[in-house]
Write a structure and sequence with these properties.
This protein is an alpha+beta fold. The chain is about 55% helix and about 15% strand.
Length: about 120
């Protein structure tokens, strides 16, 4: 990954810009991620015991963070999702030092929703 945080930040924003938007009907209250300052929606589909996610947000940085999570969790089984150490990934990417507490909280709210949906909760 890039050495400078500014480069990573720009890359995360670019990831957000590349994430396809959800349809307006998918931007529902049911799909909304609670605990995020920005509006974030997460759509979950399960096929053959694998979980697939799509997300959208009104903020490109949040959309980029969602893109990272989709990359980590998409196409995995419930068991695989359960054992992913998202805190280690969060540290490795360098997000812990550079995200505001509200963005950090929103990031982990997305993680929690992904984990809940994949476990059928």
């Amino acid at each position: 990954m890039m050495d400078q945080w500014e480069d990573r930040y720009r890359y995360i924003i670019e990831l957000g810009k590349k994430l396809p938007p959800l349809d307006s009907e998918e931007r529902s209250t049911e799909n909304r991620v609670k605990g995020c300052i920005s509006q974030v929606w997460l759509v979950h589909e399960e096929e053959k015991n694998r979980h697939y996610f799509r997300a959208d947000s009104d903020a490109f940085i949040v959309k980029g963070l969602a893109s990272i999570l989709i990359h980590l969790f998409d196409g995995k089984t419930s068991e695989e999702i359960k054992i992913i150490d998202i805190h280690q990934t969060f540290e490795k990417i360098g997000l812990s030092q550079h995200l505001s507490p509200t963005r950090r909280s929103g990031f982990f709210s997305m993680v929690q929703k992904i984990q809940s949906l994949s476990q059928g909760v």
